[in-house]
Every structure is written in C-alpha cells, then in structure tokens.
Amino acid sequence: MSIDHETAAKVAKLARIRVEPDALPALADEFNTILGFIEQLGEVDVDGVEPMTSVTPMRLKRRDDVVTDGDQQRAVLANAPDAREGFFAVPKVVE
C-alpha cells in the first residue's frame, strides 16, 4: 500500500493537524515508511511464541478482588474547597 499526497492531506485533516501543502510529500513519505515497517512485522513467524507482558518472564502480582468502601473519604475530601457531611459541596445551579 502506498500513501499519496492527497491521502496524507486527508489523514492530517482527520487528525486535525494543519500541514502546509509543501510539507505533504514529506508526510506521505513518513506514512509510507511506517507502513513498510508494519508490513515487515507481518512477515515475522510468531508460531509457538507465547504472548508476553514484559521483556522479562514474571508473573503479574495479584490480589483478592474484595469490594470495600475504600476508607478514603477523609483523604479524598481533604482537598475539596467545600465539603459538608462527608460530601463535596457545590453551588446550586438549578432553581
């Protein structure tokens, strides 16, 4: 697959990036380089390779999934500009 200047301009517009018309050829070349790398990755034989979570083999730390109230109410409300009765207090906006 090859990206031309028109497609590069469309991608830039979709990404909401302003690209000057004279910079479109360079952008299209960069897109084509990236697509080339992706094609190379598709050629790699990964049969028998286990998925990894890290470059070093280790198990992820696990904890019991227990529902609690968090016991963090005071810490959470400590930075609130106005807290009353254990809740954030906000100005009334609807009458």
Task: Give a quick summary of the entry.
The protein is mostly helical and 95 residues long. The protein has 3 helices and 2 strands; from the N terminus they run H-H-H-E-E. A two-stranded antiparallel sheet has the order 1-2.
Structural description of this entry:
- The protein starts with a helix and ends in a 7-residue tail after the last strand.
- Helix 1 packs across helix 2 (24-42).
- The protein has a domain at 5-42: Histone, subunit A, CATH 1.10.20.
- The radius of gyration is 26 Å and the shape is flat.
- It has a two-stranded antiparallel sheet.
- The protein contains 3 helices and 2 strands, in the order αααββ.
- The protein is mainly α and 95 residues long.
- The chain is 36% helix and 4% strand.
- Strand 1 and strand 2 (87-88) form a beta hairpin.
- InterPro entries: Asp/Glu-ADT_sf_sub_c, GatC.
- It is an enzyme of class 6 (ligase).
- Belongs to the GatC family.
- One of its GO terms (molecular function) is transferase activity.
- One of its GO terms (biological process) is glutaminyl-tRNAGln biosynthesis via transamidation.
